[in-house]
Prior knowledge:
Elements: H1 8-12, H2 19-26, H3 30-48, H4 62-77, E1 84-91, E2 105-112, E3 115-127, H5 134-144, E4 155-162, H6 167-177, E5 183-184, E6 193-199, E7 211-220
Parallel strand pairs: 3-4, 4-7
Antiparallel strand pairs: 1-2, 2-3, 5-6, 6-7
Amino acid sequence: MLRRGKTIPELRWKDTPDFVEVAKGWNNDAITILVKLVWEGYDLLVSEILLQINCDEAEEQLETTITQSLERKIRRKMTGDEPFDVQHEVYEWESRQSAQAQPPHYDIAFYLISNERIIWPLEAKVLKSDGAVGKYVEEINDNFITCRYAPFSSEGGMLGYLFSGDPNKAFTNIAAKVPCTLNNHPDFSQRDHKTSDHQRVVPSGKSYPAEFRCHHMLLKIISSVTNSDV
Length: 230
């Protein structure tokens, strides 16, 4: 393996505290505020795009096109006072394997303005049905739990773009295949939003947060209905 040199972000920001703890220094409900932005962005996505077309006719680049539009809607709901910003397709330089290896990248990520290395990621997967959760589950087990994703955050999220089926059945299938326990989020009781808690496998010599909370948000794409919450 080629020696891994320093990147510009690593030279600029040597300290890497937990995203969640830094954000709570701004507001104790920072993560609830962050997640609320996602749901509000989704509401805009539904009203301005999804309800204006027949989504059954969409065949190509579903994950990328939905995600790109969702990130733009999230940004429109931000006030500018948050200590974080949002971006579509963000590289995780911390997890690169060598000088020439392509680092993993997130579909959407919130990053701290004060330290761009510290990222709260969202990974998206298309669920064509409530049983088609295999790729979704792989992201959790292969990336989040191994610290390949969110090395500097004790929380992160999964977005499931659900094209058909029942969100509750999808949640049941996700819980069985991870496996994990899915809990209702008290601040988003009217949304298809649950959380699961995991003990991560932290690589030797690293001080990444070992306890990790994954937010599971199922976004209905076909016959979507907007909800108001928090």
